[in-house]
Amino acid sequence: MKIVVIFLLLINLCDNGFGQSVEQKEIPRDTSYTPYQTWVKIRKEFPQAEIVKPLLPKGVKAEYEVVYTTISETPFGKRDLHLDVFRPKKAGIYPALLLVHGGGWRSGNRTLQEHIAQQIANHGYVTATIEYRLSPEAIYPAAVYDLKAAIRFLRSKAQHYNIDPDRIAISGSSAGGQLAALIGMTSNIKKFDGNEGDLKISTKIQSIIDMDGILDFADPNESGKDTDPSKPSAGAWWFGATYKQAPEKWIEASPIVYAGKDTPPICFINSALPRFHAGRDSVITILKAHRIYSEVHTLPNTPHPFWLFHPWFEPTVGYMVAFLDKTLK
């Protein structure tokens, strides 16, 4: 009888918090950015907008929930980061494309790029949508380190996924576009490498696609946002400080700083909203001076997240495939 009583007391202690220190804390997530919620916001101005649904082509196979890196020490315990891979069923060696979702470095997830990844895979590419840590979980530069690790992982698994390791591109939308440009322009800069994965493997990128991702955080459209302390900007959340508080961080994360002779070719696909073109024209001027190829496609009468909706999805994929064919094939 005494043994039973002691056993019940131990269970009660555990239920009331005894031993809670060994439990993993839940990762904070901002789920405000979804295709549906975005459609609700834009439908009045753009009644023709229809959400694009993922559709796996017959000639493409998918592999989901692949762990590309594990971070052993975080405030939330051991942390696995995942990617989803889409590749042609037909045998062969293919160029690869990493796709980085947007959401203000704070919200969203890799499924926001799935519809694009599936269709580009159908054109003869291995594509991967990438999970990375967002600002509620870890501020800059954690996301940069994560994406660099994803490149190393795919290069290390090139034979398994039928990837040509010398033909890897990166694309991104909005915040993902800024990250894609930064990743693509900083292959030779060690401070952006982090310590995830095999650091001996190159993170070099052969071409970049930037969809409405800003290139210059010092632009007034970004640096001048934080006028109300009760409403911090997406940048302030990501950097952990406003531009006025820590301009060096904002400038350090601006891809324009690294544009130069080693920059890969870039394709810019833009909405009709100029604020999301910050730094683009200046970067193009730099690239021209070094005879590096770039192209710009601005879709008229479009909302910012045009890639999520018909009738803009098909032309967006068309621009992407044409650019990838030109720079990787």
Give the SSE map:
Blueprint (H helix, E strand, L loop, with lengths): L1 H14 L19 H8 L7 E2 L8 E12 L7 E10 L5 E7 L13 H8 L4 E5 L11 H15 L1 H4 L1 E11 L1 H11 L21 E5 L8 H4 L10 H6 L7 H6 L13 E5 L9 H10 L4 E5 L10 E2 L2 H16 L1
Parallel strand pairs: 4-5, 4-6, 6-7, 7-8, 8-9
Antiparallel strand pairs: 1-10, 2-3, 3-5
Question: TL;DR?
Answer:
With 329 residues, the chain is an alpha/beta fold.
Note the main attributes of this structure.
alpha/beta; 31% helix; 11 helices; Rossmann fold; disordered N terminus; two-stranded antiparallel sheet; 329 residues
Please give a structural write-up:
This protein starts with a helix and ends with a helix. The radius of gyration is 21 Å and the shape is globular. The chain has eleven helices and ten strands. The chain is about 30% helix and about 20% strand. Strand 4 (about 95-100), helix 3 (about 115-120) and strand 5 form a beta-alpha-beta unit. The chain is of the alpha/beta class and about 325 residues long. It has helices at about 1-15, 35-40, 115-120, 140-155, 160, 175-185, 220-225, 235-240, 245-250, 280-290, 315-329; strands at about 50, 60-70, 80-90, 95-100, 125-130, 165-175, 205-210, 265-270, 295-300, 310. The protein has an eight-stranded mixed sheet, sandwiched between helices. A two-stranded antiparallel ribbon has the order 1-10. It has one domain (about 45-329): Alpha/Beta hydrolase fold, catalytic domain (Rossmann fold), CATH 3.40.50.1820.
